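Example (one chain per record):
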Amino acid sequence: VQLQASGGGLVQAGDSLRLSCAASRRTSSNNGMGWFRQTPGKEREFVAAINWSGGSPIYADSVKGRFTISRDRGKSSVQLQMNSLEPEDTAVYYCAVARSAWASTPRNDYPYWGQGTLVTVSS
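Predicted structure:
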């Protein structure tokens, strides 16, 4: 499975960005998908995830109320709408396909990863 993430860029605090990720294999439509992020020197951290049908989204506390994950049922793609961005959101964002049909937080639940897209939020 190959994943292609896009939509990153340089924005100011308070702005919005929308990330998109498409998976190469149709079978990914039966799997949960998620977004993680990483900054230099830190571990990759969970941001948001959604189950195979586009339901039951879960979020990290740090982004709850500002970010929205979505996907169309039966599609091998996922989006992350990021509003009210803060400088602390600056990171490389990675999309991933889960091993199961469900949304989950542990990185080890995701065997397939995209190449990452850089989001930079200036103050």
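Caption: The two ends are 37 Å apart (CA to CA).
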